[in-house]
Amino acid sequence: MSIITYGSLVPDPYTYTDSYRAKAESDHLLPIEVYARAFFLAAPSWVLLLMRIRNRLVGWFGLKTSQIPENREHILLTSSFEMGEEFGLFKVCDKSEHGIVLGQDDKHLDFRIVIEQKREGDSVFVELTTHVRFKNTMGRLYFGLIKPFHNIISRQLVKRMSNPGLTTA
Known about the structure:
Mean pLDDT: 82
Distance between the termini: 30 Å
Number of strands: 6
Radius of gyration: 15 Å
Largest sheet: 6 strands, antiparallel
Strand order of the largest sheet: 1-6-5-4-3-2
Order of helices and strands: EHHHEEEEEHH
Low-confidence stretches: 1-8
Number of helices: 5
């Protein structure tokens, strides 16, 4: 049961797609902002360090970079994640009651991160799906380099996001 009709918000055709899911600690559907917040706050400190290194390196190639603001946690805790709002490299592209699409278009690739919560029987599952469309060889090379990190980070994030109370305390 997909809540968001993605339409043109998710690159088509997808060059790469992956999806990770975890059973949520809560058996109740929560406001999607709770999971969007957890997506950002669940990142271990080593991920933030990798993002800083990434930003320094890719700037040389003219790719989009972002700064991690000092008041990052405050911004995330007070945000309602409205369409067009940006959090570093992640822009809110679409949002519904049970799903949110974050992403960015750049000269080498377009990506979308879909965060959804889905009820299955008496349980709720949090799902984190990544869609990527490569635009050129640079996009393929870039993603080839980061894919091992992406897989590790995505698995850890979805596990941590499944208990959002731990990431926002």
